[in-house]
Amino acid sequence: MQRILSDHLPTHVGHTVRIAGWVHRRRLLKSVAFLIIRDAAGLAQVVVTDPAVRAELEKLPEETVVEVTATVTANGTAPAGVELTDPTVRPLGPPAVPPPFDLYRPALTASLPTQLDNAPTALRHPSRSAALRVSAAAVAGFRAALDARDFVEVHTPKVVSSSTESGANVFALDWFGRPAYLAQSPQFYKQLMVGVFERVYEVGPVFRAEPHDTVRHLAQYTSLDAELGFVADHSDVMRVLRDTLEGMLGVVGERAAGALATLGVTAPQVPAEIPAVHFTEALTLAGAPADEPDLAPAHERTLGEWALREHGSDFLFVTGYPMAKRPFYTHPDPARPAYSNGFDLLFRGVELVTGGQRLHRHGDYLAALAARGEPVEPYAGYLDAFRHGMPPHGGFAIGLERFVARLVGAANVREVTAFPRDLHRLTP
Amino acid sequence: MQRILSDHLPTHVGHTVRIAGWVHRRRLLKSVAFLIIRDAAGLAQVVVTDPAVRAELEKLPEETVVEVTATVTANGTAPAGVELTDPTVRPLGPPAVPPPFDLYRPALTASLPTQLDNAPTALRHPSRSAALRVSAAAVAGFRAALDARDFVEVHTPKVVSSSTESGANVFALDWFGRPAYLAQSPQFYKQLMVGVFERVYEVGPVFRAEPHDTVRHLAQYTSLDAELGFVADHSDVMRVLRDTLEGMLGVVGERAAGALATLGVTAPQVPAEIPAVHFTEALTLAGAPADEPDLAPAHERTLGEWALREHGSDFLFVTGYPMAKRPFYTHPDPARPAYSNGFDLLFRGVELVTGGQRLHRHGDYLAALAARGEPVEPYAGYLDAFRHGMPPHGGFAIGLERFVARLVGAANVREVTAFPRDLHRLTP
């Protein structure tokens, strides 16, 4: 008999079926026992009255993997209106050692560090697995939106001979006796691939040796990177980003509707035009001094509230960040060269995306590095490509874990990451 | 005027359009000049008769990025039946330095090392970019096939505290002062995630410090990993793999039809049932001694020829590899415990996929490590999860670059990898 998933039970009333999953919970009452089975699709209730089956059940603690063959019986008070009766229960492995927290309670009450120490079991809790389902759907939506716009997926090196963004915050490793570094972003490679495909994206791990321990930083996170050529300026990039976000949230709504319901959240609408304010205007709105070179998290929160209040938008673009605070490959605003054609996207008052137009002329790169007093040599292989014809281009990078955390209302990105890596954590 | 791509020109005959791209080739004849523009969609021919435009063109070497505004004119002898006449040509950057090989010739004649040294420009050649388009389509097909079968995409750590497969061939790095390693595979994590979602997949980089220099090994490659629970044995895994390959080749045929045509190849059919031979039978077919513990590349080639001759199949499963040659997490064949429930899939005589059923009982893991004289401690965090209820499960891993190389007939995996990493190569 073919195994069926728990959500198919209602279509089998009156028939004998086989299900399999984890012992989610046992309730051993005086005259009857209830067994709740958890599988990939949800929960199923099994009613046990046979003393022999009950005796067997008493030896199978929570999380034991079992197979249940039983009759599907309608019961208006049971989950989804059906329960399984007259079961035989066969363990598919030895009795489980229950994890150090109860997975059957509505909320995981263990502290976050305890959950992370026991990630393989903690992730089985519906609240944790739901966030990862949202994450998977968001990535699928990212790809679908860009595939539909003729972007080509690329896979680039994660080990590089020099650091991308700056010398700090890189992990060093030994590459067959040579010094090498984990890539902080696919920035250079996605730019080079614009020379090949015009439009590219990559979903992959990036590594930041962040020495500080915050609720929004990880030492490895999943970066959703896109880059496109033949742009007029950064506004073309912002339009693609807007459509990509809409695609991500659309697929989350379709594929992860159950997960959103489990988490009690709804996906926000992306406005047809995301409101945008220039950096100088953002400082004013945030009540910051006019000579601040960057936005602090408190400023971003204030701006997020403003966007919601004034525009009904969960999203806000801040454009024209000062050049001094952006990486050397950033394209300046031709009209106000102290400001950049770079932007951030705030999602509910937190920086979610960084993007912008990049330099595309070889000479501009040399000038930009010289102006910063940085040597050309570490970037030589990358810069060389700009001598061979590169179109005006730009792109963006979305931090997946931050996006999901903001979307589901998790206070810490670690709550929506399967096996986080940070200053302190290298296992499990 | 909105820019259009070259493949849209035939629908604009008689109209003025704007295209943009790279100067693929100039042919400066006496009374007329031909300019071939390359964009993401292909090539377009521009006819230049105006002496002023021609003079401009003489200053724009191959690979310069330009914008052309011109009239679309029908011409049966031109590519796709149209050409652009009466053009204005505007460079979008400085004149390009031509790369050290001609991208406009039908084949890239530079040696592979020269191509790899100049990857950003070499990849612009249609033969190189076509292989990467096939690669992107193959990955899209992998995901689509597994999404349709309720697999959930996961993202797992690429830095781990102990090595997955064995102590050799790992890259060591410094993780905030602690020793750590680049992950050789997501093996343990995908198994743990079967405990959460039952069925999972991951597309991501894996790292092997391979000290040898061959045409089929890379130090970083893209692994297409899948793992599924509640299997009877490895044959359930093989069925999913078969369907996944069909999905991959299906999407390659749909999305990368032009790329396949450029490369002059057709995607093979996946038989409804891929032929399978037991390892012992494979030795006989390959003419190898009966006590060989593994298949050598020459044996695999012979087996590939046999599968094509006897079954008309480009694919062949070899099942039941000796336990001694498989990793400790491999499930033995219950009927013949010296042989495993592990398999390889040969594609045109080369090992493409390794997979099998895994151990799922904690006690079996302890016994397997003890039998090999391996300590438990490095695997403790991973093994612990098996105390908390894991279903019978198995999975497989497809090496993306090998798959694409075999599919397009590339002799070296480096020909189908954008920026390969190996013993000698860490740039670009």
UniProtKB/TrEMBL annotation, chains A, B:
GO biological process, one term: aspartyl-tRNA aminoacylation
Residue numbers spanned by region Aspartate: 187-190
Matches recorded under InterPro entries: Aa-tRNA-synt_II, aa-tRNA-synth_II, aa-tRNA-synth_II/BPL/LPL, Asp-tRNA_synthase_2, Asp/Asn-tRNA-synth_IIb, NA-bd_OB-fold, NA-bd_OB_tRNA
Locations listed in the record: Cytoplasm
Positions bearing the site annotation: Important for tRNA non-discrimination: P79
Domain Aminoacyl-transfer RNA synthetases class-II family profile: 142-428
PROSITE patterns: AA_TRNA_LIGASE_II
Record keyword Ligase present: yes
NCBIfam families documented for this protein: PRK05159.1
Oligomeric and partner information: Homodimer.
Name used for this protein in its record: Aspartate--tRNA(Asp/Asn) ligase
Organism: Micromonospora orduensis
Name of encoding gene: aspS
